[in-house]
């Protein structure tokens, strides 16, 4: 019997499942929302909410002057989430154009430690930001006065292309943007081909319908001309008689 077992196995080993939850949580913290299948979304939601709760506690401990408590909360977040280094969104284009050596200087110090805050250092216009720093300094302040329920789960009407799996979107409460108003993703080659075939079929159908209408009009005009000619011939024969 599955007493007190709330987690779904998701057809994965425990190590794979933990790594997947960690990566999905990092992506959600980075972008503010994530779209995935419904079972994964239901597993990810409590995982992210616990991380946000620890981040809120860390800020409260810091404000109260409890440095050990804040450090314990930060270490708990680091243990569950890892410490991915992020590139600020406004500098992503500049980062993509850098060489590998310049990227390394931007993300790590000379000693090898990662930059944490994303602030400029020395001659660098920007540096990397740790996922833990963003969670504690950017996301946690939004929920300082909220007792829980930081993540909203929205079931999406569309299905995933390929396996037709039902999808859901997770987003932080406060991002009140509806799923229908999100920027549409670029179409895949398969979708573009399908749209092209559909557009061609509609174009051909309209062309044939126009031809049918033109032929019907021409036949109607010819029949009227023939009727008028027959009427004229009948009138002439009547006059002759």
Describe this structure in words.
The protein has 241 residues and is mainly α. It has seven helices and five strands. The protein folds into two domains: 14-87 and 128-184, Ribosomal protein L17 (50s Ribosomal Protein L17, Chain: A, Alpha-Beta Complex); 186-241. It has helices spanning 14-31, 38-63, 67-81, 92-96, 100-107, 131-139, 189-240; strands at 33-37, 85-86, 129-130, 151-159, 166-172. The strands form two sheets. A three-stranded antiparallel sheet has the order 1-5-4. Helix 2 packs antiparallel against helix 3 and helix 2 (38-63) packs across helix 6. The longest helix has 52 residues, at 189-240. The protein starts with 13 loop residues before the first helix and ends with a helix.
Q: How are the secondary structure elements laid out?
A:
Blueprint (H helix, E strand, L loop, with lengths): L13 H18 L1 E5 H26 L3 H15 L3 E2 L5 H5 L3 H8 L21 E2 H9 L11 E9 L6 E7 L16 H52 L1
Antiparallel strand pairs: 1-5, 2-3, 4-5
Helix pairs in contact: 2-3, 2-6
Short description, anyone?
Helices cover 55% and strands 10% of the residues. The protein is mainly α.
Question: What would the keywords be for this entry?
Answer:
mainly alpha; 7 helices; three-stranded antiparallel beta sheet; 50s Ribosomal Protein L17, Chain: A; two-stranded antiparallel sheet; 241 residues
How much is the average pLDDT?
Answer: 87
Q: What is the CATH homologous superfamily assignment of the largest domain? A: Ribosomal protein L17
Largest sheet: 3 strands, antiparallel
Number of strands: 5
**Which architecture of the largest domain does the CATH hierarchy give at level 2?**
Alpha-Beta Complex
- Domain module tally: 2
| Total DSSP helices | 7
């Amino acid at each position: 019997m599955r007493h007190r077992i709330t987690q779904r196995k998701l057809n994965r080993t425990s190590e794979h499942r933990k790594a997947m939850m960690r990566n999905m949580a990092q992506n959600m913290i980075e972008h503010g929302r994530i779209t995935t299948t419904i079972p994964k979304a239901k597993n990810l939601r409590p995982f992210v909410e616990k991380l946000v709760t620890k981040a809120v506690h860390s800020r409260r401990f810091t404000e109260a002057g409890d440095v050990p408590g804040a450090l314990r909360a930060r270490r708990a977040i680091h243990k569950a989430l890892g410490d991915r280094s992020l590139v600020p969104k406004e500098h992503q284009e500049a980062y993509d154009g850098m060489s590998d050596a310049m990227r390394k200087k931007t993300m790590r110090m000379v000693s090898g430690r990662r930059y944490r805050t994303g602030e400029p250092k020395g001659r660098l216009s920007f540096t990397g930001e740790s996922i833990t720093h963003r969670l504690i300094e950017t996301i946690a302040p939004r929920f300082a006065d909220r007792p829980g329920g930081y993540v909203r789960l929205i079931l999406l009407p569309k299905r995933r292309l390929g396996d037709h799996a039902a999808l859901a979107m997770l987003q932080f409460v406060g991002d009140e943007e509806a799923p229908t108003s999100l920027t549409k993703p670029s179409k895949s080659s398969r979708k573009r081909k399908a749209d092209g075939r559909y557009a061609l079929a509609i174009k051909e159908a309209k062309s044939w319908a126009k031809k049918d209408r033109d032929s019907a009009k021409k036949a109607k005009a010819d029949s009227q001309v023939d009727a008028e000619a027959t009427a004229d011939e009948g009138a002439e024969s009547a006059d002759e008689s």
